[in-house]
Write a structure and sequence with these properties.
about 80% helix, single chain, 6 helices
C-alpha cells in the first residue's frame, strides 16, 4: 500500500491533472480572482476528503476497530493534488518546492487526521460497547468533519503561502 501511495504522490501525472483542473475552473469561472478559484479548489478537496473519511470511518466505528484503509491514501493524494493546483492558480515557479510541500502537507495532515479518527473510534468503542449503530453514525460524522477540517487547514495555509500573505512563502525566499 505504501509503495503505491508513494508512486501516486510522486507521479508527474498529478501535476498535469492539477493544471487541467485549474484550467477547467478558470473556464467555468472566467471572472473569478485567483483567491476565489483557490477557495473553490479548497472547498472541493475538503468535501472530497470529508466524504471519503465518512464512508470509511462510519463502518469502522460500527465494528469497533479501524483498519488502515483507502481514506488515508485518498486524502494524501487529494491534498497533494490540492497543493499542486493552488501552485498553478498562483503560478508559483518553484515546482520542486511545491511538490515537496504537497507531499509533506498531504502526508502529515493525512496521518494526523487518521490518528484522530482511530482514537475517536476507540473512544466510541469504550463509550458505547453495545450500540454499534450509534458508533457508526458518530464515527462517520466525526471522521468526516476531521478530514474536512484537515483539508481546509492545509488548503488555507497553502493559499496564504502562495499568495504571499503569510510569513512562510512557498517558492520564495524569506528575509
Amino acid at each position: 500500500m505504501y509503495a503505491a501511495l508513494a508512486r501516486a504522490v510522486l507521479n508527474e501525472r498529478d501535476r498535469d491533472l492539477a493544471a487541467a483542473q485549474v484550467a477547467n475552473l478558470r473556464q467555468r469561472h472566467p471572472r473569478a480572482s485567483r483567491d476565489e478559484l483557490a477557495r473553490r479548489l479548497i472547498r472541493s478537496a475538503a468535501l472530497q476528503c470529508g466524504a471519503a473519511s465518512l464512508l470509511w470511518t462510519g463502518p469502522a466505528a460500527f465494528f469497533g476497530a479501524m483498519p488502515a484503509g483507502p481514506d488515508l491514501a485518498y486524502q494524501v493524494v487529494a491534498l497533494n493534488r490540492l497543493i499542486l493546483a493552488l501552485a498553478a492558480v498562483y503560478r508559483s515557479p518553484a515546482a520542486a518546492r511545491n511538490r515537496a510541500a504537497g507531499v509533506a502537507a498531504g502526508l502529515g495532515m493525512g496521518v494526523a487526521a487518521d490518528l484522530m479518527r482511530r482514537g475517536f473510534v476507540h473512544v466510541l468503542r469504550q463509550a458505547f460497547p453495545r450500540r454499534p449503530g450509534a458508533r457508526s453514525v458518530a464515527g462517520g460524522l466525526v471522521g468526516g468533519a476531521v478530514s474536512y477540517g484537515a483539508a481546509m487547514a492545509v488548503g488555507n495555509f497553502a493559499r496564504q503561502a502562495f499568495a504571499g500573505e503569510g510569513t512562510f512563502r512557498l517558492g520564495h525566499r524569506t528575509r
